[in-house]
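Table 4 source record.
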Amino acid sequence: MPKTIGMAFAALLLAASAATAQEKVFAYNTAGAKSAASKHIVTEAPAAFKVKLLQPKKDALVFRLSVENPGADKVILMIKDRNSNVLHREVIPATPVFTGRYNLQGLEDGNYTFELRSGKNRIAQKTVEIKTELSVNRTGSVE
């Protein structure tokens, strides 16, 4: 009898570890998640929402996001890289107007997406491209 209980416990332990390993694999599999959620995606913001992403100073990588949300719905902001990795996630307060500043100075060159969601629906998406430009100034002088 103890041998049977031990074998049953080992089988349960193996099943639990297999389930955990399976979850970890799917955590990085975005292809299946996108197709399941695609029927909930709204490409444009609903008429009630107004979303603006501005760069006040062209030489700084600081961006200002403003969201007009007259219904005061709960909104989630995610900043993602080109591989859809979430770099920043924030619940925006349920207020009629929200304004936030986001400093992307520490990020590498590439495209980054500001995505706003209400529940499972994407209500707005804005893309920012960061690229480094180098210039060479050659001068000559005669003495």
